Amino acid sequence: MTLTDRYIAAAVRGVPADQKADIEADIRSLILDTMEVHEGEVEDPEHLERIALEELGDPERLASTYLDRELALIGPRYYLQWKKYTFWLLVLVVPTIAIVSFIATIADSSSAWEAILDVIATAGTVGVQMVFWLTFAFFIADRYGKEPVEKWKVSDLPESYGPDFSTKGAIGEVLVLALAAGLAFWAGWVRPSVTSGGERHPVFHENFDSWVLYAFGIAVLVEMIVVIVRHLRGRYGLLDVIAAVVLNGAILAIALPPLLGHEVFSAAWSEGEIGSRFENFDLGQAHNLVGALFIAFAIWDVASTAYYWYKSKR
Amino acid sequence: MFGLQYCAQHSNVIYMVAEEIIASHRQELKRGTAALASLSLLAAEADYGYNLIGRLAEVGIEIEANTLYPLLRRLEKQGLLTSDWDTTEARPRKFYSTSEDGISLIEILRKDWDAMTTVITAIGGK
């Protein structure tokens, strides 16, 4: 089998049967013509053949030009719809499955870390499967479909892009953070308790130090200052990303040890009169769940800050 | 991008368009002309692929063989070209010539081309 035969075989491999013979003859003629043009340059016929074939390029690309077929998994007709559906599936479905899976898994797991790893594996598998099947569906539609699935409408226009830098948005964000910081300081100072059956039960575990709440409150106050500076500047910067990493890292370092040690909430929540109100309530699982929420929030906060910073640079 | 360049002949600083921008706009302008030029040349005289590449180059249209051969086949499938294998030479060659439909299309596209030239000339611009 000559190089030319191999080249033609590679080119017509995906060509429909009714066009194969025709395109094969055409490509053979094209190769011979190209060789003829370079005839004076080299003496060795095989070298000449190589020069001609390399000039014609990838046989699959040549075949796609013959068939007027785009060399893309999903062409421009469906790409934007594919992008939109993939984005929403990943943003809505995967986190939902992660939360549901976490709640379902944590009961059977010996530790919060084991549950988190299970959730990451489940959410990852679901995400990959969804993207694969969605891409496959769009690939089929792109190859054999006639019209776009849906027509674009003016109502599809988003209200605005990116983060909210309005004064109203800034005040809202600062108020929420101030409330969170105030609550942390208050809880650390007062050490609240609940009354049940004439007895007072502390909300927090006896080993849970108030300094954890104070440190958490300070971290939230620093975050509030970062938010104010960002709103005054009117854009996200690298410092916001660094601040998000440092603050979230600090918050996790403060909150996770007592949470994973199951020493934040007092035993009153699962024992005695209060505990009897919440049937099947597991205090250890509750600690793990709150810890997981802290981790999820930290990841989301750092990722969204980095994303907005990246977008602001473009 | 636009860039400041020194024009020695006129001893002043002028704005020049970067080479790659010119090249990309030229390519946009030329896109689609290969089919019309091929149909026109093949209406004048039947030819095979590589010789047509030479004739196109003579009139200033550069096209590669791996683009022209598939284009000729597509035009043939659309009924704008007809083909015959010439077996009189050392090896057979596929000769294309423009069909009646192809000639009609040339007339339509030339009118469009002329109209566009008139519009662009009328718009003017510095």
Oligomeric grouping of the chains? heterodimer
Note poorly predicted spans of chain A: none
Give the number of domains of chain B.
2
Distance between the termini of chain B: 19 Å
Number of helices of chain A: 11
CATH superfamily of the largest domain in chain B: Winged helix-like DNA-binding domain superfamily/Winged helix DNA-binding domain
Distance between the termini of chain A: 53 Å
Query: What class do helices, strands and sheet pairing of chain B give?
Result: alpha+beta
Number of strands of chain B: 4
Radius of gyration of chain B: 19 Å
Describe the main β-sheet of chain B briefly. Answer: 2 strands, antiparallel
> According to CATH, what is the topology of the largest domain in chain B?
Arc Repressor Mutant, subunit A
Strand order of the largest sheet of chain A: 1-2
Shape of chain B: globular
Overall residue-averaged pLDDT value of chain A: 84
Order of helices and strands of chain A: HHHHHHHEEHHHH
- Derived from helix and strand composition plus strand pairing, the structural class of chain A reads mainly alpha
CATH architecture of the largest domain in chain B, by name, is Orthogonal Bundle
As for the number of domains of chain A, it is 3
Residue share in helices of chain B? 55-70%
SSE run of chain B: EEHHHHEEH
